[in-house]
Design a protein that fits this description.
homodimer, alpha/beta, two-stranded antiparallel ribbon
Chain lengths: 196, 196
């Protein structure tokens, strides 16, 4: 297949997607070319359009096509609460619960010293400015309950707690619908400590 | 994220890739937008270019940008041998062995009655015309050793054996480097029958 340069270029480009190796990229390329050329065109257009149109919201830093995203502009939301999440996917999970009506700040990452991601890389400065706008009274730390997420939450609370803001963290505990026998011990220990 | 239409469109488009669900598509979209916008542009261009430029070789049916692929045009190859494979990936595997110097016919699929893929869908007519061009003397059936691959090989050999062509199938047997203890019984049985 020495003359298949367009094919080779496509396979190499697909490999830039996270979690896609040579075999998957080959399978994707063959599938699109053999069975779904309209899909290839659609994906091509969606990629170009997204890369060109999508930027970060000026206020909450999430992906948006506007200067300020629809969530931040929504006046029915409680501007005194600011929920800090790692990614738009996390924000979307919180939104789907319907249990939160405040605003968000999306870090677009987490502190990860081992990968060289420091406070500057995830825009903590921008978060601090946003949290100290005078309207925000409570900052809810909803970073993940992983080592990096916990470290990120810790650094943020260290930075903010001297400024008179009410800082909270999502509750840790036993997941809904689970049986104690199968829950990991760390979770049970936390649920005991945080019992109410 | 109600205003994130370009993002939603990108996620939906990524889901058309085989093996990519909602979560993977979201992760891919976020990765490209957050960490690899040049990658998104590259992939966009590669997709559009491939979908536009790549067609099927007139002679062997593989993907190529030309009318006839480089392999078919290579005069040093033995035109009396025609190796039938399911996909360009299979062809590429055979090529990498360096053990075959004949020509190929790429089915771009396999017979699969359960999925509604019949002889017409994988271009058997085209294969028969190609095999009966007068130059081809041996047809090597190198479809996969799966149920569908075997059925495909069977149908091809039924269609061609009355026409005076020498029909062969890749040898079945114990893989190089394997220990009998760990080889499946079907393979050992075939290796016994086909012993030489």
């Amino acid at each position: 297949m020495s003359d298949a340069n367009a094919l080779e270029a496509l396979i190499q480009a697909l490999r830039r997607l996270p979690g896609v190796g040579v075999k998957s990229a080959q399978r994707m390329a063959f599938h699109l070319l053999q069975h779904d050329r309209p899909g290839a065109q659609t994906l091509s257009y969606a990629l170009a359009n997204a890369a060109q149109a999508i930027q970060h919201c000026e206020r909450c830093h999430t992906f948006t096509e506007a200067t300020v995203c629809a969530t931040c502009l929504d006046e029915r939301r409680d501007a005194s609460k600011l929920c800090v999440v790692e990614t738009p996917a996390d924000q979307s999970a919180l939104e789907r619960t319907g249990a939160y009506k405040g605003l968000y700040f999306v870090l677009m990452g987490k502190l990860s010293p081992l990968d060289g991601v420091g406070p500057h890389d995830i825009g903590l400065k921008k978060l601090f400015d946003r949290a100290l706008d005078g309207t925000v009274q409570e900052v809810i730390l909803a970073t993940n309950f992983t080592a990096e997420g916990e470290a990120t939450a810790h650094v943020i609370s260290e930075g903010l707690k001297a400024r008179g803001l009410h800082l909270t963290r999502l509750a840790r505990g036993v997941p809904v619908g689970s049986e104690l026998e199968y829950v990991d011990l760390g979770t049970i220990a936390h649920a005991l400590v945080d019992r109410r």
